[in-house]
User: Fold these one by one.
Assistant:
Number 1:
Amino acid sequence: MRRKVLLALLIGAFAGSFAFAAGKQEPAKITVWGCFSELQAPLDKAVEVFKVKYPTVQVETMVFDLRDFEAKVAATAPRGQAADVIIMDHSLVGRYGKAGILSAAPSDVADMVNTKGRYLPIAKEKLTINGKVVGLPVFGGGPALFYNKDYLAKAGIEPPTTVDELYKAAVKLRQMDSAGTLTRAGYSIRLTGPTGGSQKFAFISNQMVGGDIIVEGKTPNTYHGNLDNEATAKALMWHVNLLHGPDKSDDWALKHDTEGFAAGAEAMFLRESWVIPYMKQNAPNINYGVVPVPRDKYFRIYDWLVSACVPETGKNKKLAWEFAKVMQEKEVMEVLFNDSGWIPARRDLDFSDILAKEPRFKVFITNPPEAEVYFEVNASAYTELWTKVGEIIQEAYRDKGLVNNLAGCRAVVKKANDIANQILKESGEYGE
Amino acid sequence: MIKFVQNAKKRHLLFVLCTLGPVIVLFFYIRIIPIVKTAWYSFTDYSLLKVNPSFVGFHNYAIMFHDTAFKEALSNTLTVTVVCVLITLTLALFFSVILMRVGRASAVYELIYFIPVVTPWVPASVIWRWLFDPSYGLVNQLFSLLHLPPQSWLQSPDHVIIAIIIISIWKTVGYYMVIFNVGLRNIPDIFYEAATIDGANRRKQFRYITLPLLKPIFLFAAIMAVIQFFNVFTVAYVASADNQGSPSYEFKVLVWEIYRNGFNYYKMGYASAQAMVLLAFVLIIVLLQFKVAGNEID
Amino acid sequence: MKSIRSKPFDGSIIFIHIILCLGALCILSPILWMLLTSFKTGEEILRVPPTIFPQYATLNNYHTVLTIQQFPRFIFNSFLISSLSTLSVLVTSIFGGYAFAKFDFPLKKFFFTLILATAIVPFEVYMISVYITIGKLNLYNSYLGIVFPILIMSFGVFFIRQHCISIPNELLDAARVDGAAEFWILKSVVVPLSKTPLMALGIFAFSEAWAFFIWPLIIVNTREFYTIELGLMIFQKMYYIEHGPIAAGAIISIVPMLTIFFILREQFIQGVTLSGMKS
């Protein structure tokens, strides 16, 4: 018996080494890395289209989780061991573009980016580093307010348009059982997840502050914290009041985020467009609607840009940029839109058939004209900044003593601000 | 005859060179040089984006004192280690002792309890993550059956540590039970029979025969358990990693901080410093336990 | 008076079985629950209160995982890596263990203490340095790069050394007098006598290599090199959580190790036993 097992192991080892050796001979090949798992379907479509143009070139695609992805790119790109095409979000484009790791796009690609109306105007700004275009936009999309129509109808309220209305609606929509335990969240707050937590806190705070939590300094490529102010403290108090005390409308014990919405455990939450295909597949019975992010003194909507870039040290740059161009084709963009729900970056294409089938997408495509679109800054220390600020905010969420305690909230956001500035000073990017 | 001996010595040395030689070389490349290099990196500001690191002395270690994330990770790691070692070893000992009273069925129980041990950490964590789901998880469903309020488990910092501890105990109790079985079976029956004749009841026998004779194995198990739990990473990373669709409160532990600082923030120098601190802790723990063991054996 | 070892049939034995069975239930039910979940449709999984046995049993989850998600490739990778590591550990351990046990040479104590010292150092302490080294050697995302840190095992060297010490010197000297070469002695005398500890070490090395997670996490860049552990974890991290396929994936990743365990169960337990006795 033992001998058989050992024999099997040996055979496995031999077979494996043969397969490995065999796999080594390849024709021209490019590799593509995507920073999100939803990119798999559109990447597959792009490979199909690419093969028609370049039948002899092999394309290998690979999608990652964002955080694990960052380190791999940083470790491999400077050495020329990264993929030929890397699809990454604008914070990484900024970081690597400034470090000289990304190659400049050929003139036809640069022209695409510079064409008016082809993409959001901010794309050109975010993708031009040191005067050169370094990426081709693929998708983006900001958040909107998802709400459960049945719950709102039963409570007799309209979908909120301001932050105050959101608060009042949250309190009206919550449900408790006889023992006083919350069974349904009126508004689901992002309570976990460092970068996601600070980002979603900022969805609300931006409306009160008129600026993001980290902003650019006067000198280019410098940044500083923007948390130490009354408005941010008020935003924190807004969240804490919904988590403790008489207006409690959310709790750690409830199911959160998209899954919670699909389970009917929450009445409203802020999220991006990818929720729509998810709901279609997993919870088709939930009758929900989408409205723009509620506003306050200001009206600011978050957006981001995921673009295809080509590392400078790559060996197949020309082919890589060709692949990036293929990702722009309408059929690929349609798969992206339909399957993943993310909003294609191309604004000059006609997606009316998709929109006719699912009109809820419209909220994500056209922002109200009075809204100001904002992007997060391109700091190199982005991950650390948003993680550490997020952790402080989430600690604060758990503090009952901050209910209606503006001074206490101010102390917390000041602490977050100090830590943010310290991180920026350490990475050499601090500037007033 | 002398020539034979001299030749033998030469042959022996040649043999050692050909066998142990490559092994030592591998050890140098895979273990020793990396450890030394880590110590060196800990005194620099090596970063993945900055290819030429500069010497910064004890700066990294100084920052650690103020790093709340690191302190939280350290506290979590110590708590998990102490609690898991205590509960796991006690449970393992308990099951091992009562298993002695069971006849041939004990082999079956041994096998069953060992199954989580051969289940790799990743699927084990995935399974338990699903069990701890606040809405659909089996644990909260059982709670509601027993009319207890549902807990937030992996979504709140108070409960995530309990979840991690439960998973760790589930995964390792079988292993230590088998180790204790060895120890218990090695105690000759004669001791117990003599004690019975002398009039000692079961409890006295356990206290005065079983426990003292089990001490060496218990200490060995304790050392293994402490090192194992101190390096906790996979269960924390897989069970409590915050996913986009399914949020969770990330349970900070030492090894994850090293990973995070090195591979998410790219601060390899700082991460190396934290790694040296991890090493220091492990060394202290092992030395302490050897000292205790030394005293006991006397 | 009853000895702690006596096994009469009395009430307490039933009580003990009850406790052990309850324990066994706690031990097995997570895996069983996951198994049941893997055969349910997405909608049935999200039902509250949940059904125990699937009402609409489906093989879809397994189909997704085995075809779309390339799990078979991951399992192959895990087998390859684990086999390579086990082979290397066994060879280096018998070489090192035998040499330390039966030979004298200069600096013997020094080298032995060195290896002893590295035995306690957890891999996570120096993984960053190994990562940088592997990068310079351009071995990212390759089988050699993945298996590099687990080519040797300090514990393995000690374990075999402990065993080799107990081999009588007369046996070896007799062979030498007969004119046997040292390597022949190793191959035909020492190894056959060491079958049991080698088997136990092999199993231990294989399961350690299979469960090796943090290193593939940081070094593997493309799906063709994913191990099953890495594949399962990444599968769980996607935006859309599909519990059915994740359950199927988890069950599939347990099957290889569980199968080996059931075939070689005596050797598994023996391995733990041996390491316990050597303490």
Number 2:
Amino acid sequence: MNTEISKIREETVQNYSKRNVSHYDDPMNKNFVYGEMTIDFVNKIEFKDSDKVIADIGCGTGFVYDIVYDKLKNQERKLIGIEPAKGMLELAKKKYNFDKNITFFEGTFASMPLENESVDKIVSTLAMQWVPSIDDSLKELKRVLKPNGSVDIMMTEKDDGDNFKNPIVEAMKKHLSFKQIMKAATLSQRVSSNHIVKHFSKYFDLKRDYELSVKTVKKIINGTFNEHMKWWKARSEQIISEVKDKDNFLIDLKNELDKTKKPEGIPFDLSILHIHLEGLK
Amino acid sequence: MEKSEVLKELKNLIEGQTEKKIKDENQDIDIDSFTMMLVITFAHQKLNIKLDMDKLDFDQFKSLNDLADVIIASK
């Protein structure tokens, strides 16, 4: 990806910081489309007693620790959260200021304020698709991970929301130029399990030192237009801000999405990658 | 670069991203906007051809042949 695309992604993260932080913890954003899958993924992560330093990369407001705090709280364990969006970071810090064993830092996948080989377990949910470069992220991940450490990452797969996005693009075509739509297209990485294996194999010796498992999980989430719009608008604020006639855009969006409506509601075709890397040393 | 080479490079690029085989150069490739952006980036970085996004349209991304024509015409 070129520098222009990287810049767009960085601006998107910065914009998250500028928004009112109160809706980051909105139960609708947390629980509707990706929330249940995230909770399920985090609950299934195996935390060993030897995992003394755990880092959540792209921790947002601390959602992962909200799910497993009771399981992980331990005087001998150090929990770290890293997040580039200042607004989310402040909320996470405020939420966990009672526990000195949890520390939150500003940073990104490609630049973590952590020592070399200092982390036993790296966790990340729904963050890696936003990185400007997966290669830069994995290089940094390798640097901070202990040789016998492990990684659990959940990220969107390339086909995530494919059938949901088509009507959105149709509505966008009525309000935005080709160039503006292309800008929206570059906001997140679109990778498959095969792509992920190729990326990891560049930085981790998968034949000798590490075991990698990548699974694609698919699910249909049905909802009303308003339910979908709440999370979609939060995620797509940057592109919506470019639409001049927002009221008519929403009408067009509703008309297009209604064409996909089933008796159960408007379907969103979720496609998620579960990535687990285990150091064998 | 000759058109046949552009077609070959585009086929590899698009098949690599979509993980779907393209049987012939006039087939409707049905690519999403992310893959379109990959094509634009490919033209710029590998062929040194900057496609003018103010003049491009979705219809020009229908087949490999259409795409190769757009790229060659932008030389």
